[in-house]
Design a protein that fits this description.
The complex is a heterotrimer of chains A (327), B (290) and C (255).
Chain A: H1 14-17, H2 20-35, H3 39-65, H4 72-88, H5 94-115, H6 121-141, H7 143-146, E1 152-153, E2 159-160, E3 163-164, H8 168-190, H9 193-203, H10 205-210, H11 215-241, E4 243-244, H12 251-264, H13 270-287, H14 292-309, H15 314-326
Antiparallel strand pairs in A: 1-4, 2-3
Chain B: H1 2-31, H2 39-56, H3 61-84, H4 92-114, E1 130-132, E2 135-137, H5 139-161, H6 163-173, H7 175-180, H8 185-210, H9 217-232, H10 237-258, H11 265-277
Antiparallel strand pairs in B: 1-2
Helix pairs in contact in B: 1-5, 1-8, 1-9, 1-10, 2-3, 2-4, 2-8, 2-9, 3-8, 5-6, 5-8, 6-8, 9-10, 9-11
Chain C: E1 3-12, E2 15-25, E3 30-34, H1 41-48, E4 56-61, E5 64-65, H2 71-76, E6 79-81, H3 94-101, H4 110-115, H5 118-138, H6 153-166, E7 171-175, H7 183-198, E8 202-206, H8 210-216, E9 219-224, E10 227-232, H9 234-238, H10 241-247
Parallel strand pairs in C: 3-8, 3-9, 6-7, 7-8
Antiparallel strand pairs in C: 1-2, 1-4, 4-5, 9-10
The chains are: A mainly alpha (327), B mainly alpha (290), C alpha/beta (255).
Chain lengths: 327, 290, 255
């Protein structure tokens, strides 16, 4: 099997870089609340985690099947609203509402997959944008369900037995578990025949069909899993900020997701996570110095520069550098 | 019945500008195969440039509109020359991402320059509506309709009767032959993109005074432009014109008879429905396999 | 396990690319389809493997109807094709190309993969071994870790063949396997085709190189203007008056 070249389902990184790097990362991550005490920094890391799950979900479509979804905010928002409504209106426990939200988002992903069955490239993008647009309009206009522009305040924090996961430390572990879960699912998928089918879809559909890969089936599967993960992120977001409004459908979330994946490295597993960290930490770090509009402007310019000069993203560039040093 | 006619007229005014947007994008997306997600930003630029020309230069309204169109055309040319030309050999996905970057950059640039508060663009027309039987229409909107129609006709004439237009069409029908005949391919690409962007700016300059100007107005404009292009067929000018008018009328009818909150959904639904029924994708390309 | 084609017709907007073609491909043989350009050979391949919907006709294989199935379903029935123009997964290595071709040899579904069941690992190593076997069979062992798009043309076509073999075809359709190849490369391919037939895979090929066709085929079918004009052994075809007439005056009548 290949050595994890960008865009290929490769061997898991630990196989040839040793277990040291991932083990250290996990250890650092597990003990983070102990050495990073400031609630502000914890907040940033929690948001990075939520966006990490989102970026991983978008990467599954963009990086592996090669289809760009600019409507991922819709799945994120559906997950957030579903989770909020299930806990607020139906008074479900968070632990039931979360899978419920994931399931509903997955259903939406299935719908997109079926709608966009034979569409690729720009047309797929357009359908995803249109879908997101309709969902956003519904969230604003269907007052009885979503409370319209006023949003849903007071979304309950999760409780685990006697403990409330309201605090940042506890929530951090919840998000960390979700990131780990999303990462593992992606890694397993990517290194399997399903992952190979995804990539085949991107690389040469006609050839893929000729050897028995039902590309429709795998595109829908990718859409469903991707949407489900985005829905997971949405639910986590809803119960963290404890307020859901049509703002979750803001295009800036989608833009941020795309930048995270493209900059981090699409078609790799670490890329989206690195990208998520970069683009959550960076805006916060720059916040004092530079206003939000300038940052978004920079994002636009950065996307152009990345596509032209560093199309594979940061992680593959670092890997290539490391390989070159090793040889 | 009066209501119906009123909605129809309003729809045609709106549709005329949608047609401009659509014609511009059908040239860019349909002929050049560039997925121009920044199209709506030229629309926004048109509105803001009009406002700037009026405010700064104290120009006459008509001159300001023309200046805005010129601005959009120039920026479009620059965009094509600086970004798209070096990337012409790249895949359509690459140019798509680049145009998304341009979209984000332009929108936030506009946000920085003009602020996020919606701007009202002054115009010299009286506000009292003209009444034609059961239908009333503001003079500004008459101006918009007339100018849109004029620009559409100009576009047709340019494409079909001038040497430039013929050269453009030749470039995209058969590039190699056109090159052999002495057509400067690079310039045609730049000209086409500039022209399409100029039309978008025109739409923005016309609609800006009718509604308000705000930085994210381009998002919907982009999508509606795509909707029109998909409806009318890629590269199809009459299709884009008809599609634009249809979209405008459909929106007005939808807003009037169904719900005004969902009026923007019409464009989205058109995209989804048309793409659903259209046999695009893997099997329609099968004739090219092997 | 015969491929049966009856009255197959394909029209594109009034133009009949295939105007009613009937023939059989018998198991364990190498059958070649020849004919001048535009005779409808690749169209026939596309129709058999589901890339085109025929206007008329029946295609049956091993007792089952193929007409109307999508390509992946046709492949699942054991019929795999290659393409006229080089068709590989460009960004993937040769090894990954072939592993993708082995898709049908695996059975892991979504749950198997996500839950990481033990038999998944066993399956993956089995597939890996199968892939290595196929790569060695086509002689690309030394290229295993190289990106397919970076290989020279002749080797890319071997990758294509390896990918197709990965799907464990009972009937292999080769679309101009010798196109653009040097004499040495053609010899390699010809040898591989014979070995594939010896392993009990039926081969149906479209080719322009008459020496290749006549040297290895059991049956030769000649198409012209979308119809079968002759069918028989190489010896019969080479002296068939209709065949000679069809090729006379055509640009590459290399009979």
């Amino acid at each position: 099997m290949s050595c994890g070249a960008p865009g290929t389902p490769g061997r898991p990184p630990s196989a040839h870089t040793g277990l040291a790097a991932p083990a250290t990362t996990i250890l650092l991550a597990l003990t983070l609340p102990l050495w990073l005490e400031s609630p502000y920094f914890l907040h940033v890391v929690i948001m990075a985690g939520i966006f990490g799950v989102l970026a991983l979900s978008l990467n599954l479509l963009l990086g592996y099947t090669g289809q760009l979804s600019l409507g991922h905010a819709a799945f994120f928002g559906i997950g957030a609203y579903a989770s909020a409504l299930l806990t607020l209106r139906l008074e479900w426990s968070f632990w039931l509402a979360l899978p419920g939200a994931v399931a509903l988002a997955a259903l939406a992903g299935w719908l997109i997959g079926r709608l966009a069955l034979k569409l690729r490239g720009a047309y797929f993008v357009l359908v995803t944008i249109s879908f997101a647009g309709v969902v956003a309009l519904v969230s604003v206009n269907w007052m009885e369900l979503t409370n319209g522009p006023l949003g849903l305040p007071g979304v309950p924090a999760p409780t685990l037995g006697p403990w409330s996961l309201r605090g940042k430390r506890a929530y951090y572990y919840l998000v960390f578990a979700a990131v780990l879960l999303a990462y593992l699912v992606c890694r397993r998928l990517v290194g399997s025949r399903i992952g190979r089918a995804f990539v085949a879809l991107r690389e040469n559909e006609a050839l893929a069909e000729s050897v028995g890969v039902n590309v429709t089936h795998y595109l829908v599967l990718a859409a469903v899993v991707s949407a489900a993960m985005a829905g997971l992120a949405g639910s986590l977001y809803a119960h963290y900020t404890r307020f859901v409004s049509p703002e979750v459908f803001l295009f800036s979330y989608t833009v941020t997701m795309v930048i995270m994946v493209v900059a981090g490295g699409k078609g790799t597993l670490a890329g989206p996570l690195v990208g998520a960290l970069m683009f959550t930490v960076l805006p916060e770090a720059l916040r004092a110095v530079v206003s939000w509009q300038w940052q978004m402007l920079a994002y636009g310019v950065l996307l152009v520069l990345l596509v032209v000069f560093l199309p594979r993203g940061v992680v593959p560039a670092i890997t290539a550098l490391r390989n070159r040093r090793a040889s | 019945m009066a209501e119906l006619l009123q909605h129809l007229v309003n729809g045609l005014v709106l549709g005329g500008t949608y047609a401009l947007l659509g014609i511009g994008l059908t040239l860019i997306f349909g002929l050049m195969n560039v997925v121009n997600f920044a199209h709506g930003e030229f629309y926004t630029l048109g509105a803001y440039a009009t406002s700037a020309a009026l405010g700064l230069a104290g120009a006459h309204f008509f001159v300001a509109v023309l200046a805005a169109i010129a601005c959009g055309t120039a920026l479009g040319a620059l965009c094509e020359w600086a970004l798209l030309r070096p990337l012409r050999a790249e895949s359509i996905d690459t140019t798509m991402l680049v145009m998304i970057g341009v979209w984000i950059a332009m929108q936030n640039g506009e946000l920085l320059i003009w602020g996020g508060v919606a701007k009202s663009i002054p115009h010299p027309f009286p506000t009292a509506p003209l009444v034609f039987g059961p239908v009333s229409i503001a003079p500004l909107r008459v101006f918009v309709l007339v100018l849109a129609a004029g620009l559409i006709v100009t576009a047709y004439l340019l494409i079909h009767t001038t040497r430039l237009g013929t050269a453009m069409r030749a470039t995209f029908q058969d590039r190699d032959t056109a090159a052999l005949m002495g057509v400067r391919i690079g310039r045609m690409h730049t000209a086409t993109f500039a022209f399409g962007s100029g039309l978008a700016a025109a739409a923005g300059a016309l609609l800006g005074p009718v509604f308000l100007a705000y930085p994210s107005m381009g998002d919907l404009a982009s999508l509606k432009a795509f909707s029109v292009v998909i409806l009318g067929g890629l590269g199809n000018l009459p299709g884009a014109t008809l599609g634009g008018l249809l979209l405008g009328v459909a929106e007005e009818f939808g807003a009037g008879y169904v719900s005004s909150g969902y009026r923007d959904a019409v464009g989205f639904v058109i995209i989804i429905v048309v793409l659903l029924l259209r046999p695009a994708g893997l099997f329609a390309k099968s004739e090219r396999i092997g | 396990m015969t491929l049966t084609i009856r009255d197959l017709a394909v029209s594109f907007g009034g133009v009949a690319a295939l105007a009613g073609v009937s023939f059989d491909v018998h198991p364990g043989t190498i059958t070649s389809v020849i004919g001048p350009n535009g005779a409808g050979k690749t169209t026939a391949f596309n129709a058999i493997t589901g890339y085109l919907s025929p206007t008329r006709g029946r295609i049956e294989y091993d007792g089952g109807l193929l007409t109307g199935l999508r390509p992946s379903a046709v492949a699942a029935r054991g019929i795999v094709r290659t393409f006229q123009r080089t068709s590989v997964f460009p960004a993937l290595t040769v090894a990954d190309n072939v592993m993708t071709g082995l898709h049908l040899r695996g059975a892991a579904g979504f749950l198997d993969v996500v839950l990481g069941r033990r038999r998944l690992a066993a399956e993956e190593s089995r597939l890996s071994r199968d892939a290595d076997g196929i790569i060695d069979f086509v002689g690309l062992g030394h290229r295993r870790a190289e990106r397919a798009s970076e290989l020279p043309y002749g080797e890319q076509r071997l990758v294509e063949l390896a990918v197709a073999l990965g799907a464990r075809p009972r009937l292999l359709l080769l679309d101009e396997p010798g196109a653009g190849m040097t004499t040495a490369e053609k010899a390699t391919v010809t040898d591989l085709i014979c070995r594939i037939r010896d392993q009990r895979t039926t081969v149906l090929l479209v080719e322009h190189d008459m020496r290749m066709v006549m040297s290895i085929s059991d049956t030769v079918i000649v198409l012209n203007h979308g119809r079968v004009i002759a069918e028989g052994t190489p010896a019969t075809i080479q002296t068939h008056p209709d065949v000679i007439r069809a090729y006379l005056g055509s640009v590459d009548g290399r009979v």
